[in-house]
Write a structure and sequence with these properties.
With about 110 residues, the chain is mostly helical. The protein has six helices and two strands; from the N terminus they run βααααβαα. α2 crosses α3. The protein is globular, with a radius of gyration of 17 Å.
Length: about 110
Amino acid sequence: MPTLTRRALYDLVWEKPVRTVAGELGLSDVGLKKVCTRFDIPVPHRGYWAKLAAGQRVHRSPLPPRGPGMPDLAFGETQRSYRWPPDPEAELAEPEPVEPVFEETLDAVEV
């Protein structure tokens, strides 16, 4: 399963239709739309691809700044499954997560 940041997922859904991207990621289009909604990622409105194919001018909504406490990873590691009962030995054997790097400064995401 690929790991995608908010920016990478935003670029994907504006590059190809949501249904196509969802199929590539192994999700339904509704499931991908829910991921985009959870991480405040705008998706093309209905009719966007038809207008684009017809040569009409279309508007691409900008990616809003990440909200306070919102992770930068939108797909992949955030979609973890949890074992029950927990196995502490297996959890300790897993590699340490990569430290995140954010595009925006802390001042940009403060409310």
